[in-house]
């Protein structure tokens, strides 16, 4: 768990993905960057401590084939949870509180 905590503590938005070709990761990343945030992406298939990271993410409740999203050092979940935040108009306030974005004027 310490490995995940250390990586997440350094950035307001972090996404752990299976690999660079994961379409769900691309979708979540595009959504979050569309608001002006710059998530840090970690690709598990390229990490030497992959087993430890996957184990820690599983303990948090990550589904094995989905990206794991952290905003403000808080585990949000995967694409379903991120989209739920968006639909409830809670994603932008969360990005603002975590200092991932500073200003949002909306559409």
UniProtKB/TrEMBL annotation:
InterPro entries associated with the record: GlrX-like_pln_2 (IPR011905), Glutaredoxin (IPR002109), Thioredoxin-like_sf (IPR036249)
PANTHER family named among the record's database cross-references: GLUTAREDOXIN
Name the record gives this protein: Glutaredoxin domain-containing protein
UniProt keyword list: Cytoplasm, Redox-active center
Localization annotation: Cytoplasm
Annotated Gene Ontology cellular component terms: cytoplasm
Main localization (coarse): cytoplasm
Pfam families for this protein: Glutaredoxin (PF00462)
Residue ranges occupied by any Glutaredoxin domain in the UniProt entry: 13-76
